């Protein structure tokens, strides 16, 4: 669920306008637009698509691997080792840094490219009235004033006002969280109606469950309800608990190393030791605290988890997300249908003793037809489920103003 039921629009209340006024304002008709009108509006207003987050380039992904305080500490250690002529130590530390960064970079860059290729392959199509006939077009070519032809299974490609409908039900769970389909029909609703109360409107991101309808497009792309919600959500990914813990550990380690360097350096200077030797000695002790293998161990462990997820068909774009996924104990959802099917299914019908009963199943099946009265035995006022079958034979049925019930 992306939105809430009390979502309010800041633009004109097009759901409250009369069809005549709305079509006049959009300069459209129930027969739709001409191809020339649609092309002109497309050039003026742009394609019907949501703003995608800008993909990070190769250098940006690589640079992001060196933002961790732990990695920066190791880089500092390698620089000091080079400055003091310890080429072997510097080479070992640099090799560890490179291996860790390369492993994380490879995983994240490949995942990012895979997601981009997947998005490029997903193309939404829609049926609209153009030049007086129904044509199938790319959803990005839809413009305000177009008239959509919606049938069972159609994905709604823009926010639109229903002009005609026949047994038309739409699933709006992505916006309102309501599992059951909502009936849509022509007409007008109040200007202050909440999103779930606009029974004359369909919205981008929803889908048609049954029926047919003709609807005039009012908003496309970022101007839709779905588009505004998606734009608010298109923020920088929050820092995970794992990343926060690593950052805080690196910061603490840096502070301890700084205090150690200053303390040892001050003590050596106080004892009249050479300044250069004192500084190198203090730095050597401080760098001894650096966990050289920790970044590599973290990257290898998370990468193995990402590979296991990949075998299950899941793309892991950020390695740090793997730790959060593994630490998950409880998944809480606010609406049925988010992770469940949202469909009621009969598991079994049992009697008062808990044994499977075909008779109780038959009574349950006939209950919907008895809402306005159902046949009952004329000789008994007791529940049909409790009446002996031998006594039920040959008895007449009569219409009753109330419905008999049975529990089992």
Question: What's the layout of helices and strands?
Answer:
Blueprint: H1 19-26, H2 35-45, H3 58-64, H4 69-83, H5 87-121, E1 125-130, E2 133-138, E3 147-150, E4 159-171, H6 173-176, E5 182-183, E6 201-202, E7 207-219, H7 225-233, H8 241-270, H9 275-287, H10 294-311, H11 321-326, H12 358-366, E8 375-377, H13 389-392, E9 397-399
Antiparallel strand pairs: 1-2, 1-3, 3-7, 4-5, 4-6, 4-7, 8-9
Structural class: alpha+beta
Secondary structure: number of strands: 9
Outline the biggest β-sheet: 7 strands, antiparallel
- What is the gyration radius calculated from CA atoms? 34 Å
Kindly state the percentage of residues in helix: 40-55%
In DSSP terms, counting alpha (H) and pi (I) runs of 4 or more, how many helices? 13
Which sequence of SSEs, written as H and E, runs from N to C?
HHHHHEEEEHEEEHHHHHHEHE
What share of the residues does DSSP label as strand, in percent?
5-15%
Low-confidence sequence ranges = 1-8, 376-408
Shape: elongated
Distance between the termini: 38 Å
Mean pLDDT: 77
Structure description:
By secondary structure, the chain is an alpha+beta fold. Among the domains are: 121 residues, Calcium-transporting ATPase, cytoplasmic transduction domain A (Distorted Sandwich); 124 residues, no CATH class. It is 41% helix and 13% strand. The chain is built from 13 helices and nine strands. Strands 1, 2, 3, 4, 5, 6 and 7 form a seven-stranded antiparallel sheet that branches. α8 runs antiparallel to α9. The longest helix is centred in the N-terminal third of the chain and has 35 residues. The chain is elongated, with a radius of gyration of 34 Å. It starts with 18 loop residues before the first helix and ends in a 9-residue tail after the last strand. The N terminus and C terminus are likely disordered.
